[in-house]
Here is the input.
Amino acid sequence: MRKQEYFDMWINAWLAPAQIEGVLCRILDIPRETLFTLGDISSRYIYEVQQAFYKFQSGVPEAYTTQKVNFYSRDFYVDERVLIPRTETELLVSEALRIMNEDKDIKNTVYIDVWTGSTCIATSIILEMYPLVFSKSYGLEISEDALIVAQKNIETHQVDISLMRSDLLEWVYHDEGLRWKNLCVTANLPYIKDADHANMWADVIAYEPDSALYGGPKTGFELYEQLIKQCFQIKEIHKIGSINLFIEIGFDQEEVSGVFLGELWLLFEYFRDSAKISRVIHIWGF
Here is the structure.
């Protein structure tokens, strides 16, 4: 089938040219530059291409259909097993990089990304930190399916991240290699209050994994409360020097997080996203 005929057919079905190009490049396994010079689409690809376009029309998020999302100027593989990385999460990466680049003891610092998903946060931080290199880098993930996606992105970007299956920081309790080290921890945990559908997009509810969305029945901050308590315990167990924790929170969690952190006498600073919402917290003083 002629490529232009295919484009015309699906543009008439209200698909954007960029969406059509993204699907064709993925399925044909060719770069965008090659697609421009392509005359015909082989009949053996037609069924797979059509199924992808039907997904678009039914409301499946574009990132899941193209299996690609751009984050911090790099492309990452994603599918229904992981959360789709958001632009606002780049703020977490930027602030972690800015603060950790001021640290003179990176060689004695272990980096841990909790519930790493696609590894977009961990991969971006490690690549942007270079030539500074952490003593060791880990991606922890509770979902076996998500670990498969994580491994794919690690191999694509050729980063040195050790993946471990772990419920929050539980695996870290048993890692004797952390003794006397410093820790840099990042986490974009599920933080939406259970069943808070009024503040969610319909396609997010329908297609993204529940395990990556909902953080607890009362405030949505419950998983972070567990994580922060674990940081105290790990610091004591492994005689950790310092812990710098960077987390992303929901639009309505500044107050609840501030009260919780204040009660623990922790030091913390909020960073606002482009919508002026407190989106990232740097926490230290464990």
The mean pLDDT is 88. Residues 222-238 form the longest helix (17 residues). The two ends are 63 Å apart (CA to CA). Residues 74 and 248 are 20 Å apart (CA to CA).
